[in-house]
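To fix ideas at the outset, we first show an illustrative case, written as a sequence plus integers encoding its fold:
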Amino acid sequence: MTPELKQVEERLVKAYTKREDKKRHDADKKRDREWISASVDKKAYMNCGRLLDEHFGAGKTSVEPLFLKAEGHPQRTEDHTCILIIGLSSSEFKGNKEWTKVKQGIKQAEHKHKDAIKENQKQIRDSTGKCKDWNVTGMYEIVCPEITAQWDHKDLGLEIFATGSGAESQLFATFDFGVVTGVIRFEKQPGDKSQTSTTKQPTSRKRTRDDSEGDLVDDPDSDGKESEKGDNDPSNFLLTTVRLPSRKHKKWTFLWRGEETGEGEIQNDNDRCEIVFGEPRGMVIMGSFDSFVAADFTGVKVAAGREASTNPKYEWEERGDDAYDWFTSSI
């Protein structure tokens, strides 16, 4: 390289370095301005190390713990909704009476919750006797990591109801999975052939759309009977000989209808899902649920069965094809 070209190269490198230094300096100043006005949660996301240095710096005493929201934090795990940072050494923390009380209180609350569930389960077992069928009606506390990891929803639940009698026996469930709520309708077991029944069908009026008002109204021409075919053929849900789960019949398929809790969009799903009832006597369940999120869930029975406040079959029909078509056409 000639001396002239060498000089040109040096000037270009110098100019480039100066420009990059200015860009870094400006970026640092911008971050400092943002830092001053940022919330603690924002600072934890921007630079957690800097936040800890400033909050728990050398020479500081009696520093309050940091309580951060875990949502959006790069170090968040699935089970964490918040992060508690305590600026004490291990020996200081163990010797702190206030924090010892807090820790004991948390443990006591956890034990109390577990003991309450065990007591409920004992009462439920005692009430079911020794019949071969399992009385699975009642409330189940649900755990679904796929949902809780993506949305801030707690207290998921599912409650099973038995309706009808004889050849009209059916199993329904209402569920609240946080992002979606609705009704589950269990299908009959393979080989359980429905019989023709002379029992009068419950009154159920078809719902149609009133174009003048945009509302769902009763159809006066409806005969009050379900007329859906395919997967929603009513005979698929009539439990003639196998009416409850048991050791022999643990796995049950179901269809569900519901709506999103955010926008209220009606979900009308024809894909079969399943629940497996486990020991003791159907008080533990494992299942799959397929919506806009595919999820596996587990559950523990926490309360005995009760009479439904509303007819589950009516709730099912209210979320049928007419309601789905009305909702989608009104968007």
Notes: The two ends are 70 Å apart (CA to CA). The CA atoms of residues 45 and 72 lie 8 Å apart.
